[in-house]
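User: Design a sequence. Structure:
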């Protein structure tokens, strides 16, 4: 390798080096305009090749509030999303599982979802009975 190709190689290697990224996601789960406690909220990083990584998990408190922090080493951007499992308008003994994307602009920052209205059915929602 000559000096130029070595330099190019070094730049490319740097470009694909993983960097530690984080995100904080918070909000308040509501159902029928009431705050919903004990809702399971999980923060994942979507991986195209590997299974998604669970970064953090919490249950909403008595006021329906949740706040999650996650960080991960990733090449390019992390692709965080929330998975929320709840029984707001679910069939008896079933859970509704909805996923919510975290915008890229929130990476390295706080994503405040304010009210997470669980009455609303999100696309791709699943049911677990
Ligand atoms: C999260 O990432 C941002 C941007 O890289 C950084 O400034 C901040 O210190 C990180 N926060 C924590 C708690 O690691």
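Assistant: Done.
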């Amino acid at each position: 390798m000559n000096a130029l190709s070595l330099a190019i190689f070094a730049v490319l290697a740097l470009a694909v080096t993983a960097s530690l990224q984080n995100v904080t996601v918070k909000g308040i789960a509501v159902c029928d305009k009431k705050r919903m406690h004990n809702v399971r909220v999980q923060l994942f990083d979507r991986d195209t090749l590997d299974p998604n990584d669970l970064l953090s998990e919490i249950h909403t408190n008595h006021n329906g509030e949740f706040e999650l922090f996650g960080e991960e080493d990733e090449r390019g951007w992390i692709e965080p999303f929330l998975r929320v499992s709840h029984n707001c308008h679910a069939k008896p003994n079933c859970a509704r599982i909805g996923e919510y994307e975290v915008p890229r602009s929130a990476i390295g920052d706080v994503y405040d979802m304010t009210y997470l209205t669980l009455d609303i059915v999100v696309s791709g929602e699943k049911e677990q009975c």
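Residues 20-128 form a domain with the Immunoglobulin-like fold (CATH 2.60.40.3330). Helices lie at 3-15.
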